[in-house]
Design brief:
Blueprint: E1 10-16, H1 39-51, E2 56-60, H2 74-79, H3 88-98, E3 103-109, H4 115-129, E4 133-138, H5 143-148, H6 157-175, E5 183-186, E6 191-193, E7 203-204, E8 209-210, E9 225-228, H7 233-242, E10 245-248, H8 253-269, E11 278-287, H9 291-303, H10 308-319, H11 334-338, H12 341-354, H13 360-369, E12 375-378, H14 380-392, E13 398-402, H15 408-423, H16 436-440
Parallel strand pairs: 1-2, 1-13, 2-3, 3-4, 4-9, 9-10, 10-11, 11-12, 11-13
Antiparallel strand pairs: 5-6, 7-8
């Protein structure tokens, strides 16, 4: 008799290689560790998540300080609104050396990098980690980043995805440019590798020309896992074609369920198995020994530690719109929303969340405190209840868990919530494989 295994959550830890988490006031929390310029800091957090049997830890990235607000970086620097962003290759290298099972991921832009560079970076990380690497694909469109890379004019929305699609075609061809059995390494005969299994890719497209082959043999996962967070129609199509994990930001369960159904249908239409692509909303958990303790902690996170100018600096950066022309209590008008599709989407999401008309202050608080995703507040059992509701109602396949402060938020979750999820059979008690694809339950792709 065949036993049907209970569906289990995927859990991913969301990180920044800098002074704050996604929550812009995190560095001010009294117990926050401020040694973010040391490798020990990142290694400790990764070991904590590995102790909790997380599938993966991945790092967001931006290639500039927030500098859109007042056309200056001054407020971002003064109030700690993500002015620090370390190079992720070095950070992941240190984490790989301190862990043995947890997946490790980094954000690399298809706007500011080249396919060969990205293919080599992640193939190398996959080898050195024993098959645990993941690439978070982003199509950047931000003035501050553009000014650091000499880019004057960004492509339009759909063109960015067209370019990214070709970028992925070139990268995956490079990853497949070595056969799995290409390495011979026969000292006696002197034959190192089989040239019939190493090929030039000869990519010549609209955006890129790449000869190949890659200078890194095919990696343990064949292809490192892909994360992607496209939410527009074109973004969802792109994720359906390429992503192994899709990172979402739905404000409530009903919206998440609709998004989940739509995305799974698109994955099937792309000729892929929907069960092999994980849909993961970003969430955060505030855990307390009692409900009252958890609610008081959340109140402090929302009210005590976020500086309004830090919020506006981040909001301006994310939406590429200078909010210094508005007062905090100005209503979000139709004219303002017309200046940026991002403002409209954010304002509509916040309006649904708050169930009232919104102000600039609401948008800023939303950006600074992660209000756009589910917030799980309470005792370990209550947090587990809320996560279970989303998971069993097919609003998601798991969660990308962000931290209110570090390392405490992850330590509390691993110590208090993970055992409850494990007891309910919703999450693994131990790793059963060695690669990130093993953890996710997705196959190693053959060479195309």
């Amino acid at each position: 008799m065949t036993t049907v295994q209970q569906r289990q959550m995927t859990l991913v830890g969301f990180m920044q290689a800098g002074n704050v988490t996604v929550y812009s006031g995190s560095w001010r929390y009294p117990s926050a560790d401020l040694s973010f310029l040391s490798m020990d800091y990142y290694q400790h957090i990764a070991r904590t998540l590995e102790q909790g049997r997380f599938d993966c830890v991945f790092f967001d990235d931006r290639l500039a300080m927030p500098g859109v607000y007042r056309n200056s970086v001054a407020d971002a620097v003064r109030y700690g609104a993500r002015p620090v962003k370390l190079d992720l290759t070095a950070v992941l290298g240190g984490i790989i050396g301190a862990t043995s099972r947890i997946g490790v991921g980094a954000t690399y832009s298809t706007t500011y990098y080249e396919p060969f560079h990205v293919a080599r970076t992640f193939a190398t990380l996959d080898h050195l980690s024993g098959g645990r690497a993941a690439w978070n694909v982003v199509t950047s469109v931000n003035d501050s980043e553009a000014q650091n890379f000499g880019v004057e004019n960004h492509l339009g929305h759909d063109e960015r995805y067209d370019r990214a699609h070709e970028f992925l075609e070139a990268v995956t061809a490079l990853w497949d440019s070595w056969g799995d059995d290409a390495l011979i390494m026969d000292r006696e005969s002197g034959e190192f590798a089989d040239p019939s299994q190493v090929r030039e890719i000869g990519h010549a497209g609209k955006w890129f020309r790449v000869r190949g082959p890659l200078t890194v043999p095919r990696s343990p996962q064949g292809r490192p896992a892909i994360l992607q967070a496209g939410s527009s129609g074109r973004g969802r199509e792109f994720a359906s074609e390429w992503a192994d994990m899709i990172f979402t930001a739905d404000p409530g369960l009903a919206v998440a369920q609709q998004h989940y159904r739509d995305q799974k249908d698109r994955i099937a239409a792309a000729g892929r198995n929907p069960d092999e692509v994980k849909i993961l909303p970003m969430a955060y958990a505030v855990v307390g020994e009692t409900q009252a303790i958890a609610e008081e902690k959340e109140r402090l996170f929302l009210e005590a530690y976020v500086h309004p100018l830090a919020s506006l600096a981040l909001l301006s950066e994310v939406l590429n719109y200078d909010f210094s022309r508005h007062d905090l209590d100005d209503p979000v008008t139709e004219e303002m929303m017309g200046a940026s599709s991002g403002i409209r989407g954010l304002a509509e999401g916040v309006r649904r969340h708050l169930d009232r008309e919104v102000t600039v202050r609401d948008l800023a608080a939303h950006r600074a405190t992660l209000l756009q995703g589910p917030r799980f507040i309470g005792t370990p059992e209550r947090v587990a209840d809320q996560m279970q509701e989303w998971f069993e109602a097919r609003g998601c396949d798991g969660f990308v868990l962000a931290a209110t402060h570090l390392p405490g938020a992850f330590e509390e979750f691993v110590r208090m919530v993970v055992p409850v999820l494990q007891e309910r059979g919703l999450f693994r008690r131990d790793y059963t494989g060695r690669t990130l694809r093993d953890h996710l339950g997705i196959p190693r792709p053959g060479r195309s």
